[in-house]
């Protein structure tokens, strides 16, 4: 017998995302999604129907996380780098990589 209750909730429609690659859930139950082909990171707050672009617009992101200070860290697989954003920043700060080698 499965100990976990199984259920699903749709948090984003297909027309809102283009190749979502990474996901992160914070302590407030907000969902962060690395929206690779839209080159941004989107945040969905619990019980809302639309997401908010909180970082990027220029990143091919596949993975992401946040830290205790609210910074968002995302991998950019096209530029071989990891960047850090504060929510709302248009341009992230390079943390590591960035040598553009494939």
From TrEMBL:
Transmembrane segments: none annotated. Keywords: Repeat. NHL repeats lie at residues 16-47. This is Uncharacterized protein. It comes from Adineta steineri. The lineage of its organism: Eukaryota, Metazoa, Spiralia, Gnathifera, Rotifera.
